[in-house]
Amino acid sequence: MYRRSFGTRMRYLNFPSPLIVLVGPTAVGKTEFSIRLAQRIDAEIISADSRLFYKGMDIGTAKPTVEERGMVPHHLIDIAEPDEIMSLAVFQQQAEGCIDEIHTRNRLPILVGGTGQYIRAVIEGWKIPPQPARPLLRKALEAWALETGKDGMHSRLRIIDPEAAKQIDPANLRRTIRALEVIFLTGQKFSTQRQRTARPYSLLIIGLTRPRPELYQRIDQRIDEMVRKGLVNEVKGLLQKGYSPDLPSLSAIGYREIIRYLNNEITLEEAVVLIKRSTRQFVRRQANWFKADDPAIRWFDMTDDVLDRVESYIRSGEGWIPAEVE
Fold it and tell me: Does residue 196 or residue 96 have the better pLDDT?
């Protein structure tokens, strides 16, 4: 573990392996806020948004621009092709490597994102049990999915393991199948199989929030802006490069609806409505991972002075959760 002075501005910090975690729903304003905060406290940003891993998927993921990434070092963005699988275990390993590297530079890492499972895996030290491949079982589940559809598979998961179903987007068939596969292989609920080691980092968890009507308005504006910036052409370009519309990466919100539009299944207006609806549903699922009454999270309303208030809170030394030593 690293213990020491993190830059001249942060010398008061004396926690082993410090990690600031910034959470909040989609469209709350995490990207801009994290950059401005990092500039103030000598920090680097590690993305924990599973949609930002993939190259060429920029508009539909609201990925930080090249200019924004040039303002503060960013990590784990554009690290995979759309047809590569970034598993939770691989992400956890890479994120931990980034945190260690940032510590060696005497800077603070800020883990930023809205993908709750990925964040929890890092901050809680999950030990993800490897499961041997069972091709016949996987094929059987995929054949079952062809018969019942995504919603049918998700409803079956909800019956067997309601807690796991709560955390998985019904449209994400790959994750639903994986959860069922692990359940059938082990005879245990998927939601109970997260072993954890000692917590590896000293944590300060900061949540950003807005009133729900304001957040929904920002979601609608963001999606309209994505379409104006060329979301349709971005999706069309990915398909023209030969990427299959069935890839897990292209099942992300925004991409799957535009693919349906390009396939003449729905109009562009209908696609936009579906994207907005799915994004609002996603926001509600995000809240399952980071609850408003979680005592470990200090929530801040996104008012004009929020940056000053968060910086003061960080500098106060309050709220830190000490690392656990094995």
Answer: 96
